[in-house]
Design a protein that fits this description.
heterotrimer; A mainly alpha (about 475); B alpha/beta (about 300); C mainly alpha (about 300); A: about 475 residues; mainly alpha; ABC transporter involved in vitamin B12 uptake, BtuC; globular; disordered N terminus; B: about 300 residues; alpha/beta; Rossmann fold; 6-stranded mixed beta sheet; 4-stranded antiparallel beta sheet; about 40% helix; disordered C terminus
Chain lengths: ~475, ~300, ~300
């Protein structure tokens, strides 16, 4: 992390011995053994130690430093220290191999030479069809448990992430209480579909499919109520207000026993079922039918949001991200557009809540703060603003979490998710499969041209004096 | 109180007194903008001090003045970016309709028919030239998010029309060869023209240009003058902030001169250049030079003053 | 018993928790003043301080046995505060290094900072959970928690006095630091205008680090006070964090004295509100206060002074 500090000032080779090899060697030695070089070694060793503790044995509160001690005494520590030293050597040698390194870094960060926009629209279609085929066929080769994970951890979360992507990726805002809308959708489903799941229920009972529009609208209304007053102000306030809102919904779910059944949660929400026009089908306990419904919905949402992104609405969002003042001056109702994005995100979350509730038992634990952070992580990892990226990101991260569930206990997962988020922000803010437009924005804004979010406040209000 | 006195005193002698504000669009005069007595302060700094400005429909009016005179502040008040502490702005997009602008949000003002460009170019840098103009055009379109997501035919039609119109505008400003290029990659002069195209996309009745010639070469300046005249010929009133007196002389019917947040002169370009108050404002001297010399100096002085601008 | 009977007791409790919120709120306000960013990981700085302080105090006190008294009590509290402050400062320093500095070097958009701070928070919370179990860690109060005096019939016990007095002492020290010292001057300079501060020879990088460290010292010491009263846990930071942020906004974010006032006011409001409504929804009150301020007076009680009001 501190690499760039020293890399910028490679010591000049000593005068009188201009031999390139000796000069290079002297440079390397200086880079390694100077105060800065040693300090960097210290930093890397420390990072290695942190990594060792993060992946190491659990500690107890009785021995505050027990976890650290155990990590150091574990032979694994050697690997981490060697990695740290290797990193130190590589970074010190970087100035010597600057051309190579810059191309490598450039490759990792994928700069776009800002010039012509490719106009081909048909090449991606083939890729998309292949991906769709994989998505259709893949579950046939999976075990039962994996299929459950495919629905609960990937399908539902892909939908959630697509919705949050509208807020983070399109509108350039941050919503940290996103899962609250999911909870609203889930509890609404329990309320409207059965008289058994919650202490209260609707006077008329509905099929879960009919609850979908209700949940969608409820969540959107909650979003507007929450976002309306907040978005008038600096965009970063939205993050903290949604954070508080998420916690409150969680609190109500936990404490309002006579409304939400408290921590016991909601049992017995009926599965999805169709019984009309002579067509009768019940989704039941098998995850596969749910998977295919989710697949259809996710693909439909991807198509719909793709249209949104390429439409006047998507362009308005881009305009707001890149220069909010100019957007206003060009007639874009910025507040309304931000609110729209926020409400769309919320309604997708509410919608996903219906599917979730009809699929399985839920309790307030399902709507914890960490779940909100998880969705943020998934969007960031996949690539904010990139629909395909977000879905692939969900599949990769959640898939890893599933297959590594034995070596990595679920409670430790978030250590890695946190690290993933930081590393992405440092090295690849545009995500795994970036959106072309978003990536250009990030790069241009880092060069001081335009913006890449709509948090406001960073640029002076209202043009020049 | 003192505000009124000032407001009257600063209007150039040849101008009819504006002391008693009549109904907007007074008989005999068809005004597109009637800004009265605008006062804008930032903390202790008074940026506009009782400025009044009247522009006839279809006219090209230039606002000139030394740096810090309050020209851009005036633009920001007209477009809603700043809210003046005092004063009102009446805008008449068509004869017979009038809107009071102070207190409206910028996008609402743009919707009423005022578009602007910025002194330090504010394009949407990562969008293509076409998309930049599309944003302007599409603010008038009405289809919503639902019809977009469903891809309804009327939305597709509106979008196609928008693209067609954007291409037309890009052709008008001479950027048809840059349609799909990212706007940040365009050369400076082209960015300025793209900004004008984007503003025209909003179908304005009044176009505010903030130093459109800054940083352009003489050939580009000539093209720009032609463009401004074409725009005006299409029935769009143009309000122009400009330092380049040659450009002002060639396009503007009349000129308003601001200094220290007040209007110090108002008239045709030739009249204004002879005005002693204007000469003094630019040179800071009261006498010692012949009128003719001073007029020439007044034309050049802004060019000197521009250096410390951006 | 009615509200009025309880009023003074609620006031005493409110002042105690309010002074803690004030101490944490300063971290938010200082960082916001200098960077115009909400430091989402500040609550984890608080958590690390709490663990550090409580582990140090426990190591000295040993298991069970007699409650220490006299000088020993003072020593243990001071040790807890000191170690808590150091742990908090270290955590804040590392946070700045890892989650903020690399982005600043790249001139990243603001959204990136918020996200990386959240990543850091997620990492820190769960690492603490792994290292020190996911349960509450408590210590015996290191002093005899008797009644000190009565305030209009309300009992004020030793713990309340210790917390309130320590918090006030820290607030006064910080206020002096910001108002009087050279470092404080640099912090204010950076908050007001970073570019000018650079020109004036202020080492902005150092000021930013120091701002984090000062916020960390306070939050860490505050964490010990909090953990001594309630308990320490890996996820303890979240709720006080949101409340302290509310306090910072209530007072006017970026305003040091505002954060102090905001903390006290929030503590009182919450204490009264928690009695009048259901105590289990006490945490909701802070949130409602936050939304209410944002709607009614977003610049807070005292206005946004340290930084420029955006």
């Amino acid at each position: 992390m501190t690499a760039t500090t020293t890399a910028t000032t490679p010591p000049a080779p000593p005068a009188g011995q201009p031999g390139p090899a000796r000069g290079a060697r002297a440079t390397l030695a200086a880079a390694l053994l100077s105060l800065n070089g040693l300090r960097r070694l210290g930093t890397y060793l420390l990072l290695g130690l942190v990594a060792a503790v993060a992946t190491g044995p659990d500690g107890t509160a009785d021995e505050p430093l027990g976890a650290v001690r155990d990590s150091i005494l574990d032979p694994r520590i050697v690997v981490f220290l060697l990695l740290a030293v290797a990193l130190w050597l590589v970074v010190a040698a970087a100035p010597l191999a600057r051309p190579l390194v810059t191309t490598l870094i450039a490759r990792v960060r994928e700069p776009v030479v800002a010039s012509g926009l490719p106009q081909h629209r048909y090449a991606p279609i083939v890729t998309n069809l292949v991906l769709l085929a994989i998505a259709i066929l893949a579950p046939l080769f999976l075990s039962g448990a994996a299929r459950q994970a495919l629905v609960n951890d990937i399908g539902i979360y892909a939908l959630l992430a697509l919705g949050l992507n509208v807020v983070i990726g399109y509108a350039g805002l941050l919503d940290l209480g996103y899962i609250a809308f999911f909870a609203i959708g889930a509890y609404a489903t329990a309320y409207f579909t059965t008289d058994k799941a919650l202490p209260v229920h609707s006077p008329f009972l509905l099929n879960p499919f009919l609850v979908m529009p209700i949940a969608l609208i409820l969540a959107a209304i909650a979003g507007v109520i929450l976002g309306g007053p907040t978005l008038r102000l600096r965009g970063d306030y939205l993050a903290i207000v949604t954070l508080g809102f998420g916690e409150i919904i969680h609190l109500i779910a936990n404490n309002a026993d006579n409304l939400t059944n408290g921590p016991r949660g909601a049992f017995g929400v009926p599965h999805l079922s169709i019984n009309m026009l002579g067509l009768e089908y019940d989704w039941g306990n098998d995850p596969m039918p749910y998977y295919y419904v989710l697949l259809v919905i996710v693909v439909a949402v991807m198509i719909a949001f793709g249209r949104l992104e390429r439409s006047r609405i998507g362009r308005s969002w881009a305009a707001i991200r890149e220069d909010e003042i100019a957007a206003e001056a060009t007639g874009v109702p910025t507040l309304k557009m931000k609110l729209l994005a926020f409400a769309i995100g919320a309604s997708v979350s509410g919608f996903a809540g219906v599917l979730f509730a009809s699929k399985q038992f839920f309790n307030p634990q399902s709507f914890s703060l960490q779940a909100s952070f998880l969705v943020v992580t998934l969007v960031i990892f996949g690539g904010m603003g990139s629909r395909l990226g977000v879905v692939v990101g969900v599949a990769v991260l959640q898939g890893l979490a599933y297959y590594l569930r034995d070596p990595v206990p679920p409670t430790d997962r978030y250590i890695y998710f946190g690290a993933v988020v930081i590393l992405m922000m440092i090295f690849r803010p545009q995500g795994l499969i970036p959106s072309r437009r978003r990536k250009r924005e990030i790069q241009l804004s880092e060069q001081g041209v335009g913006g890449a979010d709509s948090l406001g406040g960073a640029r002076p209000e209202g043009a020049q004096a | 109180m003192s505000r009124h006195r000032r407001g009257d005193a600063v209007v150039a002698p040849r101008q009819a007194p504006t002391g008693a504000p009549s109904a907007p669009g007074a008989p005999g005069e068809d005004l597109v903008v009637d800004a009265r007595d605008l006062t804008l302060r930032f903390g202790g700094v008074t940026s506009l001090d009782g400025v009044s400005l009247r522009q006839r429909r279809g006219e090209i009016l230039a606002v000139i003045g030394p740096n810090g005179a309050g020209k851009t502040s005036l633009f920001n008040c007209l477009t809603g970016a700043y809210r003046p502490q005092h004063g009102r702005v009446f805008f008449s997009p068509e004869p017979g309709t009038t809107h009071q602008l102070v207190g409206r949000r910028p996008h609402a003002i743009t919707k009423l028919g005022i578009a602007r460009t910025f002194q330090n170019i504010r394009l949407f840098p990562a969008l293509s030239a076409l998309e930049n103009v599309q944003v302007g055009i599409e603010m008038r379109q009405r289809y919503g998010s639902l019809s977009t997501m469903l891809g309804l035919p009327h939305m597709r039609r509106a979008e196609r029309e928008g693209v067609g119109r954007a291409v037309e505008l890009l052709r008008m400003v001479g950027l048809e060869h840059r349609i799909h290029e990212v706007s940040a990659s365009l050369p400076y002069g082209e960015q300025r023209r793209l900004e004008i195209a984007r503003a025209l996309g909003t179908e304005p009745r009044l176009l505010l240009l903030d130093e459109p010639a800054a940083g352009t070469n003489p050939a580009e300046k000539r093209e720009l003058a032609e463009l401004i005249q074409t725009i005006a010929a299409n029935g769009i009133s143009v309000l122009l902030i400009e330092h380049d007196m040659r450009l002002v002389m060639s396009v503007a019917a009349s000129v308003v001169v601001l200094n220290f947040g007040r209007v110090i002169a108002h008239g045709t370009p030739a009249e204004v250049q002879r005005d002693p108050a204007v000469i003094e404002a630019y040179l800071g001297t009261e006498n010692g030079e012949s009128t003719a010399d001073a007029a020439g100096a007044a034309a050049d002085a802004p060019a000197l003053g521009r250096k410390d601008l951006d | 018993m009615g509200f009025l009977d309880q009023f003074w007791q609620l006031t005493v409790d409110g002042l105690m928790s309010g002074s803690l919120y004030a101490v944490i709120a300063l971290g938010y306000t200082l960082v916001y003043g200098v960077l115009q960013l909400i430091n989402f990981a500040h609550s984890e700085v608080f958590m690390f301080g709490a663990f550090g302080g409580i582990f140090a105090a426990r190591a000295v006190m040993g298991d069970g046995g007699d409650v220490p008294s006299g000088l020993a009590s003072v020593g243990i509290v001071a040790l807890g505060l000191g170690v808590g402050a150091i742990c908090g400062a270290t955590a804040a320093f590392c946070l700045e290094r890892v989650a903020y500095r690399p982005l600043r070097k790249r001139n990243a958009p603001r959204l990136a900072y918020l996200i990386s701070a959240i990543g850091a928070s997620l990492f820190a919370v769960n690492l603490a959970g792994k290292m020190w179990e996911r349960q509450n860690v408590t210590i015996e109060t290191p002093f005899t928690n008797g009644e000190v005096f009565k305030l209009f019939g309300a009992t004020v016990n030793t713990k309340t006095v210790v917390i309130f007095a320590t918090a006030m002492a820290m607030l006064i020290m910080l206020d002096t630091l910001v108002a009087r010292t050279r470092l404080g001057q640099s912090i204010r300079a950076v908050a007001q205008d970073r570019d000018t501060a650079v020109l004036m020879g202020v080492n902005v990088e150092r000021v930013i680090v120091m701002t984090f460290v000062i916020g960390g010292l306070l939050a860490g010491a505050g964490g010990f006070l909090y953990a001594m009263t309630f308990s320490a846990a890996y996820n303890m930071g979240f709720i006080p964090g949101v409340k302290a942020f509310t306090a910072a906004v209530l007072g006017g974010i970026g305003n040091v004295r505002g954060a102090m006032l905001g903390g006290i006011v929030l503590g009182l409001v919450e204490s009264y509100g928690g009695y009048l409504f259901d105590a289990s929804y006490k945490d909701v009150i802070a949130f409602l206060v936050l939304v209410a301020i944002l709607m009614i007076r977003p610049s807070g009680l005292l206005g946004e002074k340290l930084g420029r009001a955006a």
